[in-house]
Design brief:
Elements (H helix, E strand, L loop, with lengths): L1 H9 L11 H11 L4 E7 L5 E7 L4 E7 L7 H14 L5 H10 E6 L4 H6 L20 H13 L3 E7 L5 E2 L3 E2 L2 E4 L11 H20 L4 E3 L9 H7 L4 E6 L9 H14 L11 H7 L7 E10 L6 E13 L2 E12 L5 E7 L5 E3 L13 E4 L2 E8 L3 E2 L1
Parallel strand pairs: 3-4, 3-5, 5-10, 8-9, 11-14
Antiparallel strand pairs: 1-2, 2-4, 6-7, 8-10, 11-12, 12-13, 13-18, 15-16, 16-17
Bound molecules: zinc ion (ZN).
The site of zinc ion (ZN) has 3 residues, from loops.
Length: 387
């Protein structure tokens, strides 16, 4: 794909890793202030500016927001990849001109700057902004609602990250998932929802060329307190994007690239034949399952019993000195058949020590797991990974 050649050399390398907040995007907003119309559309509960980037003057209005959940920054990186692509003057100029003439794109790169800085899903008041569509109790929710009403979008993009547990058939990770949120409890296919499904089917077909088997459909339920569901309910086609994991990519530098291609597809840079029966095609996209664990240690023997079982370790993302550390936590003890580890080890039935003790407790930080009678045999060690 010609766009992948551009991407390889030109993606926004000033934004990398998972910890992205206002401080990181401020220099880019300064640069792009000359290229796009960038405004402060309000401030967060703690008084931080919330920015909106507007590009293009076309009839079709698209509104996107990223980092509504503060610790979900992958799509923010993709937005700045997209900004860089649109602002450059050396390639795809005809296509970019057409985009700017056809679309007006409003984009909020960080809707929840307080959550982004403290690296939390929730905002400064510990409120999940995606459960605040009815009450609009938080400054950030009110700002999103206001720009939704003022911009009168034809399409909304609700941009998120999903956890590493999500899987697809054949032990594939859900690297990108999409959802056309329901517009009512009956999950009816309303006109706006069908439009969203059509868009998703096109995205699925383009991304399947790049990461076959790694694109999923996010779980379907209706909650009118979720922003996407509430906009869909009001008849505005809304797509949920969930950037996810791919092999070894805890920094999510791969999935950001796929989100970039998804944006290119939505805005017509990458063309795809529209499916005749988008609803059927949409439901053929495999639904996310939750079969991955970060690490699985199989066949460990615990305590005095002869029972052999397995352990699952989950990486908790902890903000430490301006970086995000993956802290391994003992999360499950059980047979874990039918589950897969992004990393796996086999203890082959030996007794183990976790942090030098035999009694395990769920929720404990894991430094090291060794064989009880051969402590040089290490099944897991915290590698102090920062992402
Ligand atoms: Zn989210």
């Amino acid at each position: 794909m010609e766009f992948s050649a551009w991407y390889k050399d030109h993606f926004e390398s000033r934004l990398t890793g998972r910890y992205i907040h206002t401080k990181h995007i401020a220099p880019l907003l300064d640069i792009y202030g000359h290229e796009f119309s960038i405004s402060v559309i309000g401030s967060s509960e703690k008084g931080k500016n919330i920015h909106c980037i507007k590009m293009g003057t076309g009839k079709k209005v698209v509104l996107a927001w990223s980092q509504m959940h503060g610790n979900e920054s992958t799509t923010t990186k993709a937005i700045f990849d997209f900004c860089k692509f649109i602002a450059q003057k050396s390639s795809f100029q005809a296509e970019i001109g057409e985009f700017l003439d056809s679309f007006t794109f409003y984009c909020i790169p960080i809707l929840n700057p307080d959550g982004a800085e403290q690296y939390s899903r929730e905002n400064a008041n510990n409120i999940d902004l995606n459960r605040d569509a009815r009450e609009l109790s938080q400054a950030e929710s009110k700002i999103l609602r206001k720009i939704f009403e003022e911009s009168r979008p034809d399409l909304c993009l609700n941009l998120h990250d999903q956890r590493t547990i999500y899987s697809l058939p054949d032990k594939m990770p859900a690297t990108v998932s999409f959802l056309a949120p329901a517009a009512n409890k009956a999950l009816d296919i309303t006109t706006s929802r069908e439009t969203a499904m059509k868009e998703i089917v096109a995205l699925y077909s383009v991304l399947s060329e790049l990461i076959p088997g790694q694109i999923g459909r996010y779980d379907d339920s209706f909650n009118d307190n979720c922003m996407g569901d509430s906009f869909q309910m009001e008849g505005v086609p809304t797509l949920l994007f969930e950037a996810g994991h791919s092999r070894g990519d805890y920094r999510r530098e791969k999935s950001r690239e796929y989100i970039f291609y998804a944006l290119l597809t939505l805005f017509g840079f990458i063309t795809v034949e529209k499916s005749k029966n988008a609803v059927d095609a949409y439901y053929l996209i495999p639904e996310n399952e939750e079969r991955f664990r970060d690490v699985i240690i199989r066949n460990v023997q615990l305590g005095d019993t002869d029972k052999v079982t397995s352990l699952a370790i989950r990486y908790e993302e902890v903000l430490e000195n301006d970086r995000i550390r993956l802290v391994p936590i003992l999360d499950e003890i059980g047979d874990l058949n039918g589950f897969f580890g992004h990393k796996e080890a086999d203890a082959e039935g030996v007794k183990i020590l976790l942090n030098s003790h035999e009694i395990l407790s769920i929720g404990e930080k894991v430094s090291i797991i060794v064989s009880k009678y051969a402590i040089n045999r290490v099944f897991f060690r915290d590698s102090l990974t920062f992402i």
